[in-house]
Amino acid sequence: MQSRRHIWTVLSLGLLTLVATFVAAAPPVKRARPPKFPKSVTDVFFPDAREKLVGDKPQRVAPAVEAPVPAIENAPTDAPSGGNGAWSKLISAEAIEDEIKAQERLLGAAVASAAGFKGGGYQQARAALSVLAVLFAIDAEYGQPMRWQREAAVARDQFARAGFNCKVGTDASFKEAQARHEELATLVRGGSLDARGKPAESGWSQVADRAPLMKRLEQAYEQGLAPWTASSGEFNRRLDRVAHEAQLVAALAAVIQRDGYEFADDESYREPAEAMRTGAIAVREATANKNFDQARQAVSQIGKSCTTCHEGYRN
Q1: How far apart are CA 44 and CA 74, in angstroms?
Q2: CATH of residue 265
Q3: How far apart are CA 171 and CA 42, in angstroms?
């Protein structure tokens, strides 16, 4: 027994000797020397700043908890009659800017050549100019600062006039539409529009005919909202586009209810238009919450409102 203890003692001492030898043989770690500051620097600071502090030691503040994003509120019931601030409930400044850029490209294609314009491109130009006139009219009334707001009222009237003149494809309407496209392309690239002078006061029925606005509404539903909410997979892939088209539908559905448009005071006309507006708001809310079922039901409501309106009224 004593022999075994003696062996373990010898082994332990040998192991300790090896470890000590290895540590002693290891090269020393080189560390940077602490900096030496001149007196002109050290005189600026207190030797111990804690001696100069007054009052109780501040308590650690718990990290703030981020508040959940609220659901998009429904537009106020007076949205169709307008008022600054009402538009922001229907369409975002970003959506307006994106749609203006999209219409600039469509207008550019329509005025690419005089022959193409006279051969049918004037109809595409009329649709683009009408939507642009409405977007700039909304821009001018928007309750929050946004891009092109300084030029919006003048742009509204210029694009409105060109849109009405593009009911026919002539040399004069081609030149006017082409000039409006050049001005719009300058705006989109970051330039400005000559906004000197007092813009005309335009009623909404003088901003754009209802027919081209209805065509854009049909496009938003038939080529956008309906196919993009046919399945949950397509809906999730197209969330941004669905939200954009929904906002545009909400805004245009409010516009076509404005005073001055034919049947605007007819309840049987306003009811489906209002159903379209509220349905579009619900679609936008569904995209924010990624709620496919809600989006599909709301798009169905928009489709029914379109059918009801077309059965009773034709542009």
Answers
A1: 60
A2: 1.20.120.10
A3: 82
